[in-house]
Amino acid sequence: MVAINFNKGQALIETMISVACLAFILGTGLNELVSAEKLATNDLTNTRKLIWDYRFDAKSLNTSSDYRMYERLGVVLNPLDRLIQVDLPLNNLWVTRRSIFPMAKLNDSWEAKQEGDLSNRPAKLVVNNALSGSITNALQDGLGFLFVSEELSSDSLRFGYINNEVVPESALKEECIDGC
Asked: For residues 70 and 101, what is the distance between their CA atoms, to the nearest angstrom?
């Protein structure tokens, strides 16, 4: 065993110098660490607000179609959109551009943007919509008159008609009275 000579105090001085150097490094770098942490927290908060905002900000966000649902649905919807212009966009993955924390959100932009879209867009997907037109209406009115059947007239039997005011029974909720 090696005998340590404490009379000279060399180990104590080396320890004090090491602790002083570490304290100096931490003291000078602490402000930088605190400011970097605040910047990162602000960036994370702003990126979250940006990605969850309902409006698309072209300066800070990109759109992408690099996701699995696009690969599967694109095979069906792209040709369908070319045929009947259904307008179901698949390029709806929002990705942040410049951020320490990259984020992405699959934005469902298939909702109706105008009131007319509530009936026009689904009507394009109904096969009977191809039967609606002036020739079919004239045929229906003639058959309705000949056979004295109002159900066949173009006012009663409308091909491809979608009523956006109809609510299914399953969507209706009963009003709760007295704490049901």
From this structure: 24
| Pairwise CA distance, residues 18 & 36, whole Å | 26
Strand partners, 63: 94
pTM: 0.52
Q: What letter does residue 141 receive in the DSSP assignment?
A: H
User: What does the DSSP 8-state code read for residue 130?
Assistant: G
Contact 26, 80 (CB under 8 A): no
Which helix (H) or strand (E) segment holds residue 20: the answer is helix 10-52
CA distance 18 to 27: 14
**φ/ψ (deg, to 5) at 93:** -95, 115
Planar angle of CA 130, 131, 134, nearest 5 degrees? 110
pLDDT in tens, the chain (180 residues): 566 665 667 788 888 999 999 998 888 888 888 899 999 999 999 999 988 888 888 888 888 888 888 888 888 888 888 888 877 778 888 899 877 888 888 887 777 777 778 778 887 887 777 777 788 888 888 877 777 677 777 777 777 777 777 766 666 666 556 555
